[in-house]
Structures are given as structure tokens and as C-alpha cells.
């Protein structure tokens, strides 16, 4: 009898593990260099090259150099990790050629980490052992906190020097067991890669006596299961930006080399697929995904299991599965990072989806603006095909499925399902009226299931760790986590993955580190051009599809832009409308004409020509466009306007009042600069004014010729005597 | 009607092939051999633009002939998608990201400085054929905002004051 699917998989995975270990075996030190689009932009290629030169020059054969995908800590890139077996991994930030040189000579050659360059330097571990207590509410925060405090006290009592052991709080490891909730807490120990379940002070004593005291793992308290984000956590857990996250969709981003199938296999890639094929029951897969309460991460939040049921039930032999990687929201980069960091997870999710609905052909629809992502997917597809994980008779199961890439060409509307289908068919990407939905009549008229990149990336984790686990990671209505692209005026920009139901405050302050430059947070924009703004007062809103919608914004695909007091919401609404207007495909009148008229009004308002009655007209028009447009683009385009009108109406009113002002001092046409009596006549502003419209004698009060002033603000910035007033 | 049966097809085909490169011609032939050949139109246009820098009328007509789709459909697609250019581009393609993250970090001021320094607006090329200026939707590197992409290189955290130096460094002869 031929080997079973699972046996074949195990064999392949074991062989891959051996190859990886053989390659790493000789290496005493491993150097990881991030290599996603953003890291390359920050200079990662030079850094990689610098390390390569050093390794060659020193003739060292025990130093391995490799690339990883993006970790998501954008503002500190490029990031370099130096890994020595048995020691705490060290990550360096903002590495350039000079830093690479120092890191190589001091750390790699001499074994002394270069502390000033470590990622988020104040946090990085200098300790021998680090204990991370799960701080998620689900594990029972009431239990965890006292336990953690007792542990710290006991350590002190036992005379363990504080520099030897660090105790920190992390977010959920994704190990929660529905039965144990509230009775035990999970604790991860680095660098020993052990997770314990602790519930009593006696457990703590045992840990201190055996693990801390003698370096021996306490087997009876150890968790047998593998935590989903463990690989990630082991590498990055000491950094607070990461510690507060729960990585499911991004479990391998920043951990594996995205061009190595072997490394992916070592992290259990394709095991879920093998399990599904071995079991041979597509309906069971759909039921599992339904039970996990996985909702579409592309923005709509439709239950994935339900969509799969519909596609499976549709009549017809030929069906298609499509991964929507068009990521058009201008300010979002989750899908790009995922595809560049771990394309295998998305491929595996698509194959499981194809099997669940009965498709044998699938497509990646990717933005042409993402060349590196395209290359990585291409490479991953080749590797999978060669390994028998894609194409004919996958893993000997008899199931055939192939995937191919189709490129977009810079049209936001092509993210809409029916437009996307037209685009794959080689047509202009214009939407059509639904129903029929693509699950009934999609690509070439055949039943077609379209899901987002992140949706697919979650699927293997659901199969591996179970629907119940996934469901209870999130909220009542939606399971799992959500990845956000955090950007704007926040300290730490980057990718953030948190359980559904996490509050905006945790995302912006605990992970994002708060607002830059000590400014005040004004609003958080979610959902991009289809979304809206949430006020500072709403920061304690637990984030999921329904809560955000109730507050007039949307979850969207995960773009999250933090605004501070210098940002003008009217100008932001104008900005988004410019985008939507530009991207309107022109097929239906409400969207084509309505967005244009709305934009005209907004331009008038921000241009200093607004009238009080404009606000009502804008609102009326917005409601009209929202209710009568054909596709989601037009229907959502008014959201940024409506939500800011709802929460920041007084700012709009200030723009159109008799004395027109922009409270954020952003709309230039509404600004006015005047020199007051504090002026000492130093002449600096007059010399710096680009249009030389400031006049005055030395040591005399200066004056601005308002007719010629272009309101550039230079005088305001340069004056050291607060003599230039801005209004 | 199958164009291969018209009596001047050989001439038409030769003219079309001459307007493209042998690689593109064989790519089109490969697409023709697959199911739904017309669905590869966008992929073909990407290759044409990659090679010629833009989609010229002669190339679009040639694609229509060889892929056997109406010329109106080719120009319909070429004009629909923002990524396709119908005019030749400058030696340096400057894409200023006007995505949200870049916008809130001052991309508009960076863009204004480029316009001022080059004396052209978005979508235009300088008369000496050196620079084309474009606005881009998010380049996916928002963490480094504001960003500018020149040809294939991404420049992070660009300030308006860096613009003149940047332009100068592009045209400066490479150090020997
Ligand atoms: C104008 C417009 C743009 C969209 N852009 C995207 C996109 O870039 N990526 C995406 O996954 N979904 C996008 N969507 C949503 C898709 O139409 C679709 O709902 C989604 O891909 C379904 O996958 P999901 O259920 O996994 O979320 C867009 C929708 C509209 C109306
Ligand atoms: S709503 Fe806008 S984008 Fe959608 S079909 Fe109408 S015109 Fe096109
Ligand atoms: S810089 Fe200030 S103090 Fe000096 S001339 Fe100008 S306004 Fe007066
Ligand atoms: S705002 Fe600019 S143009 Fe106006 S006076 Fe000041 S420096 Fe001159
Ligand atoms: S907004 Fe500029 S890169 Fe995303």
C-alpha cells in the first residue's frame, strides 16, 4: 500500500528540517537581515552586502547569513538579528554599513553585543533568562498579575540577582485552552524556548528551584502544544512593540527566509493542507472555518466559511479561487508584508480553500506596484510545484490544483470583486451589479471564491490549532486577530497584529508608543478612503468589524493612520475624496458626478471660499452618493466626509464662518500671519521670506504685505521672539 | 472572423512583429496557446511598457493583431489603468507617494518642491527628456513616510530641502 498523505508530508518535512539543520549546524552564529520592500528602501541590501564581505574577508565558515521577511517594525529598519544558540537573540535597529561593521567585529567575532544599537535599546534583554507572563484578559488577568508579582517577590527572596532574570508581561501567546481559562496562566521562558502552565505559588517555587536555580526544565509544568507565534516570539519577544502582539497571520514573517520552502516546512507549513487532504472531507473543512468565525480581512468582514459553502454549493464543475492582493488603500501595507515575508502561508490557505470549494485552479491578483511580492510569490509557487505541494496529485492525494499570478495595473476599483474578475479576464476593471455574486457566476461565468491575503493566511492556523482556539482568540462575533498597518503621527510605525477586541488605546499607545513629539492625539483614521475617523474619546473601543461600524468608521483592510493636533480633518476628508474621485471608474452617475461635486465643495472650503450652507449641501450629497452608487467604491467614498462631519463639525464650521479659520493651521488659504508688538526688528524673517513681502527697518517692528504673502509659514518658524502670530 | 484567413495576414503579422520585440512576440504566442488568451492582455501590455517605457500606438495595434483582440479593447484597457503610460517617459521617473501616510507627513510639500524645481506638473516630462514627475498611490512603505520612488529606488523620509540635491545627484556623472 502506498504511503498516506500525512506520511508523505512528514517525510518531506523531516527531510527539510534535516537540510536546514545541516546548513545551520556548522554555523555558530546566524545573522538575519530583513529584506522586504521597506527594508530594502531603508538600505537592507547594502547591509547584507557588508556582512557578506566581512564573512568572506575573515574566512569564517561558522557564520551563516540569511534573509528574512519584514518584522513590521518599520521606523527602525533595517533590522538585523544576531543569533547564537543558547543565548538570547539580539536584534539591531537602523543598521547601515558602519553599524554592520561594528556588529560584525564586536558581536559576531568577539561575542559582545553592541548595546547602543539594539532594537528599542532600553528594552532589549541583557538578562540570562526572561519570563513572559501572558497578560491577556482571556488567560485571566486577575490570576496572572498576582502570580507575576509573587514570582518577582520569590525571586528576590531567593536572592536571585535582578540582572539575571527578567520578568515581563506579554500579550496572548495564542495557547489559551478554553477549559483552563481563568485557572492557569502561560509563561514563556527565553532563550530556553519553554512554555509553562502555572497556577499556584508552589509551581513558582518549583520553577525558581529547578529552572532558575539549576537550569533544568520543569517537565511536569511544561505545555506540550506548540504556540502558534512561538518562533516569532522567541526572536522578538523582548521588544515591547512585539510583545504586545499576537502573531497568527504573521506567524512566520520575520522568522523564515521567504524564499526557502525548507524553512517554512520547519515551521509546520503545509501540515494543515496535508491533514485536510488526508481526511478527505471538504465539508468538514468548511465547517471548521465557519466555527472559527473567520471573517474576511479584505474589509467586508463576510464570514469566510459561509462564502465557501456558497461556492461549494454552486452548480458547475469548473470553479475558481482567487486571492485578492490588490491592496489599494493608500496607507496600508499588511498584505504586501505578508506576501513578502511568508508567501507559503497564503498559498497553503488558498489550496485548502480550493479543496473546500472544489476548485482546481486559482489566481493571485497582485498590484503591479509590488514587484518584490510578485517575485516572492513566483518563487514560492515554483518551489511548491517542484516539491509536489502544488499542481497535479498534491502529496499523492489525487487532488489537483494550480495557482497563477495575474497583475493589476494601478486601479483601486479592481479590488472590488466583480471589477477584479473583469481585470483578470483582460478587460477594463469596471464593477457590475451584484447579484449574481461571484460565488455563483464569477470568472468566465464560473463559481468563484475571492478572499483577501490575510484571510487565507489564517486558514492553516485554524486547521492546525483548531476552530475553537481561533474563535476564542477574538470576540463573540469575529474570531482571531487582525493585522493593522500603523502609520501617521505615532512613535512606532509598522505592522501590528492583535486579537480582535483589542482597544485602539492598546494599539496606539502600548504598541505604537503614543504620539510623536509630545503632541496630542486628535483622531485615528481606519479603513482608508472607505472609512472614517474615531475621536480620542473613542480610544477604548474594542476593535472589530461591528464596533467600528457602529462608530461611523469601518475596520477596512487594516490601514490605521494616527492624526495629531496639526492635522486638519477637513483637509483629510478632501484628501480621501480626491483619491476616490480619481479612482471612480465612471460607470455610474452618482459616484462619477457626486464625488466630483463633493470634492468641489471641499476644495472650496479648504481653499478659503467656503460658505455656511456648503456643509448641508455636502452632507446631502454625501448621503445620496452613499445610497445610490453601484459598487462599494462609490458607496463608501462619502464615509470620510460623513464621519468627520459627525465628530468634528465645529472644525468645518470654523472653515466656513465669516472669519474663516483652520483650527489645525493646516489649510494654507485660511492662514494669516501677522507681526505683533513683540517684534524686535532682527530682520531674520524679512531675509528668509521667499517672496520678500516683509519690510521694516532694523530694530523696528516689521510688517507683512498681506497681498503678496503666500502663507508659507517661514516667518512663523524662524522668528525667535514669538513675534509672528498665526491665525 | 479569423484574421489568419484574410489575404494580407502575412503582411499584417510581419508588421506587427516588427513593432514589438521577439520576446514579446513569443510571449503573445504562448498566451495564445493557453485557455482564454485575451485574458493575458494586461500581462502583455506590462511587458510592452517594461521594454519601451510606454505604450505607443504602433505597439498597441501590434498587440491587438497578434493577440487577436479588437484594437478598441487594447486602447480601452491601456487608458483605463493608471499604471500604463501612453507617452514616453523621462530618463528618471519620479514617483512622489501621495498615499495617506505620506500625505500626513508632508508629501504635498515635497511634491510642490519637485514641481517648482523641475518646472513641470504631475504627469509631465521635462523638455530635455530627463525627468517625469508622477504622483503615486501608496508605495507600501508607509513606515518610512514620506517616500519618493525614482526609477526602482525608494527614498525614505524625504524633506523638501533634500529635493534639489537629490535631483543633482541623479544627473551627476557616476564617480569613476
Ligand atoms: C473599491 C474597493 C476596493 C477593494 N479593495 C480590496 C483590496 O485591495 N483587497 C481586498 O482584499 N479586498 C478589497 N476589497 C473587498 C473585496 O471586494 C472583497 O470583499 C474581498 O476581497 C473579499 O475577501 P474577504 O472576504 O477575504 O475579505 C475592495 C472592495 C471595494 C469596493
Ligand atoms: S460606484 Fe464608482 S467605481 Fe463603482 S461602478 Fe460606480 S462609478 Fe464605478
Ligand atoms: S524674525 Fe521676529 S523679531 Fe525678527 S523681524 Fe521678524 S518678526 Fe521681528
Ligand atoms: S508666510 Fe511666508 S510669504 Fe508670508 S510673510 Fe511669512 S515668510 Fe513671507
Ligand atoms: S502612504 Fe506613502 S508609502 Fe504608503
Structural write-up:
The complex is a heterodimer of chains A (727) and B (176). Chain A folds into six domains: 113 residues, Glutaredoxin; 109 residues, Glutaredoxin, CATH 3.40.30.10; 210 residues, NADH-ubiquinone oxidoreductase 51kDa subunit (Rossmann fold); 94 residues, Ubiquitin-like (UB roll) (Roll), CATH 3.10.20.600; 87 residues, de novo design (two linked rop proteins) (Up-down Bundle); 56 residues, 2-Layer Sandwich (Alpha-Beta Plaits). Helix content of chain A is 40%, strand content 14%. A five-stranded mixed beta sheet of chain A has the order 14-13-17-15-16. Chain A has a four-stranded mixed beta sheet with strand order 2-1-3-4, with helices on one face. Chain A has a four-stranded mixed beta sheet with strand order 6-5-7-8, covered by helices on one side. In chain A, a hairpin with a 7-residue loop joins strand 19 and strand 20. Chain A is globular. The model of chain A has no long low-confidence stretch (mean pLDDT 90). Chain B is an alpha+beta fold and 176 residues long. Chain B folds into two domains: 78 residues; 80 residues, Glutaredoxin. A five-stranded mixed beta sheet of chain B has the order 2-3-1-4-5, covered by helices on one side. In chain B, strand 2 and strand 3 form a beta hairpin. In chain B, helix 4 packs across helix 5. The longest helix of chain B has 12 residues. Chains A and B meet through helix 2, strand 13, strand 17 and helix 21 of A and helix 3, helix 5, helix 6 and strand 5 of B. FE2/S2 (inorganic) cluster binds next to helix 6 of chain B. The site of flavin mononucleotide has 23 residues of chain A, from strand 12 and helix 24.
Amino acid at each position: 500500500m502506498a504511503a498516506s498523505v500525512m506520511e508523505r508530508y512528514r517525510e518531506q518535512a523531516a527531510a527539510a528540517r534535516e537540510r536546514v539543520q545541516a546548513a545551520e549546524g556548522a554555523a555558530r552564529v546566524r545573522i538575519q537581515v530583513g529584506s522586504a520592500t521597506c527594508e530594502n528602501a531603508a538600505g537592507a541590501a547594502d547591509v547584507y552586502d557588508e556582512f557578506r564581505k566581512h564573512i568572506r574577508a575573515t574566512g569564517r565558515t561558522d557564520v551563516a547569513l540569511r534573509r528574512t521577511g519584514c518584522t513590521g517594525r518599520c521606523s527602525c529598519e533595517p533590522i538585523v538579528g544576531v543569533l547564537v544558540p543558547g543565548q538570547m537573540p539580539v536584534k539591531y535597529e537602523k543598521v547601515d554599513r558602519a553599524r554592520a561593521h561594528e556588529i560584525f567585529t564586536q558581536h559576531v567575532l568577539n561575542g559582545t553585543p553592541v548595546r547602543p544599537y539594539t532594537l528599542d535599546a532600553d528594552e532589549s534583554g541583557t538578562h540570562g533568562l526572561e519570563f513572559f507572563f501572558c497578560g491577556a484578559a482571556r488567560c485571566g488577568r486577575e490570576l496572572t498579575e498576582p502570580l507575576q508579582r509573587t514570582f518577582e517577590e520569590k525571586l528576590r527572596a531567593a536572592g536571585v540577582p535582578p540582572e539575571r532574570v527578567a520578568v515581563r508581561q506579554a500579550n496572548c501567546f495564542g495557547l489559551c485552552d478554553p477549559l483552563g481559562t481563568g485557572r492557569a496562566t502561560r509563561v514563556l521562558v527565553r532563550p530556553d524556548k519553554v512554555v509553562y502552565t502555572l497556577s499556584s505559588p508552589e509551581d513558582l517555587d518549583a520553577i525558581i528551584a529547578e529552572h532558575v536555580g539549576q537550569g533544568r526544565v520543569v517537565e511536569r509544568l511544561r505545555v506540550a502544544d506548540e504556540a502558534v507565534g512561538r518562533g516569532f516570539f522567541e526572536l522578538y519577544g523582548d521588544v515591547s512593540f512585539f510583545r504586545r502582539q499576537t502573531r497568527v497571520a504573521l506567524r512566520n514573517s520575520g522568522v523564515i527566509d521567504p524564499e526557502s520552502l525548507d524553512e517554512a516546512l520547519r515551521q509546520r507549513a503545509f501540515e494543515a493542507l496535508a491533514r485536510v487532504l488526508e481526511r478527505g472531507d471538504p465539508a468538514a473543512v468548511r465547517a471548521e472555518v465557519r466555527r472559527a468565525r473567520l471573517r474576511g480581512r479584505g474589509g467586508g468582514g463576510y464570514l469566510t466559511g459561509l462564502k465557501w459553502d456558497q461556492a461549494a454549493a454552486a452548480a458547475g464543475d469548473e470553479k475558481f479561487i482567487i486571492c485578492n492582493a490588490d491592496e489599494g488603500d493608500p496607507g496600508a501595507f499588511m498584505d504586501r508584508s505578508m506576501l513578502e515575508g511568508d508567501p507559503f502561508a497564503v498559498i497553503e490557505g488558498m489550496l485548502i480553500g480550493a479543496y473546500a470549494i472544489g476548485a482546481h485552479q486559482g489566481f493571485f491578483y497582485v498590484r503591479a506596484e509590488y514587484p518584490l511580492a510578485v517575485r516572492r510569490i513566483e518563487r514560492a509557487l515554483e518551489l511548491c510545484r517542484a516539491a509536489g505541494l502544488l499542481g497535479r496529485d498534491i502529496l499523492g492525494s489525487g487532488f489537483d490544483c494550480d495557482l497563477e499570478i495575474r497583475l493589476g495595473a494601478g486601479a483601486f476599483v479592481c479590488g472590488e470583486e466583480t471589477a477584479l474578475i473583469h481585470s483578470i479576464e483582460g478587460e477594463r476593471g469596471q464593477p457590475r451589479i451584484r447579484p449574481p455574486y461571484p460565488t455563483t457566476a464569477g470568472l468566465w461565468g464560473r463559481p468563484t471564491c475571492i478572499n483577501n491575503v490575510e484571510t487565507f493566511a489564517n486558514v492553516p492556523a485554524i486547521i492546525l490549532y483548531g476552530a475553537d482556539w481561533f474563535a476564542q482568540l477574538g470576540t463573540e462575533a469575529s474570531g482571531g486577530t487582525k493585522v493593522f498597518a500603523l502609520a501617521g503621527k505615532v512613535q512606532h510605525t509598522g505592522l501590528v497584529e492583535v486579537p480582535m477586541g483589542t482597544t485602539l488605546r492598546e494599539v496606539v499607545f502600548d504598541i505604537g508608543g503614543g504620539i510623536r513629539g509630545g503632541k496630542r492625539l486628535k483622531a485615528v483614521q481606519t479603513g482608508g478612503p472607505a472609512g472614517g475617523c474615531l475621536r480620542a474619546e473613542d480610544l477604548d473601543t474594542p476593535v472589530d468589524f461591528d464596533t467600528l461600524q457602529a462608530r461611523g468608521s469601518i475596520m477596512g483592510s487594516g490601514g490605521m493612520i494616527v492624526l495629531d493636533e496639526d492635522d486638519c480633518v477637513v483637509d483629510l476628508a478632501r484628501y480621501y475624496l480626491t483619491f476616490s474621485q480619481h479612482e471612480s471608474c465612471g460607470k455610474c452617475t452618482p459616484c462619477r458626478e457626486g464625488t466630483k461635486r463633493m470634492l468641489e465643495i471641499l476644495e472650496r472650503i479648504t481653499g478659503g471660499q467656503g460658505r455656511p450652507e456648503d456643509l448641508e449641501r455636502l452632507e446631502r450629497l454625501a448621503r445620496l452618493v452613499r445610497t445610490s452608487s453601484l459598487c462599494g467604491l462609490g458607496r463608501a467614498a462619502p464615509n470620510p466626509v460623513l464621519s468627520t462631519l459627525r465628530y468634528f463639525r465645529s472644525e468645518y464650521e470654523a472653515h466656513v464662518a465669516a472669519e474663516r479659520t483652520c483650527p489645525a493651521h493646516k489649510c494654507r488659504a485660511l492662514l494669516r500671519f501677522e507681526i505683533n508688538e513683540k517684534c524686535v526688528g532682527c530682520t531674520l524673517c524679512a531675509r528668509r521670506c521667499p517672496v520678500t513681502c516683509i519690510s521694516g527697518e532694523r530694530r523696528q517692528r516689521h510688517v507683512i504685505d498681506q497681498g503678496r504673502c503666500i502663507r508659507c509659514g517661514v516667518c512663523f518658524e524662524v522668528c525667535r521672539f514669538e513675534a509672528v502670530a498665526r491665525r | 472572423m479569423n484574421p489568419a484567413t484574410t489575404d494580407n495576414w502575412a503582411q499584417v503579422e510581419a508588421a506587427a512583429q516588427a513593432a514589438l520585440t521577439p520576446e514579446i512576440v513569443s510571449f503573445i504566442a504562448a498566451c495564445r496557446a493557453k485557455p482564454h488568451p485575451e485574458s493575458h492582455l494586461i500581462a502583455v501590455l506590462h511587458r510592452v511598457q517594461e521594454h519601451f517605457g510606454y505604450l505607443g500606438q504602433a505597439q498597441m495595434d501590434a498587440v491587438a493583431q497578434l493577440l487577436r483582440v479588437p484594437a478598441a479593447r487594447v486602447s480601452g484597457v491601456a487608458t483605463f489603468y493608471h499604471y500604463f503610460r501612453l507617452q514616453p517617459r523621462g530618463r528618471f521617473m519620479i514617483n512622489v507617494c501621495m498615499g495617506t501616510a505620506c500625505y500626513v507627513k508632508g508629501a504635498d510639500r515635497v511634491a510642490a518642491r519637485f514641481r517648482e524645481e523641475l518646472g513641470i506638473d504631475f504627469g509631465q516630462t521635462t523638455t530635455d527628456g530627463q525627468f517625469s514627475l508622477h504622483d503615486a498611490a501608496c508605495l507600501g512603505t508607509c513606515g518610512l513616510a514620506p517616500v519618493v520612488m525614482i526609477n526602482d529606488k525608494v527614498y525614505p523620509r524625504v524633506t523638501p530641502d533634500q529635493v534639489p540635491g537629490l535631483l543633482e545627484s541623479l544627473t551627476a556623472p557616476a564617480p569613476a
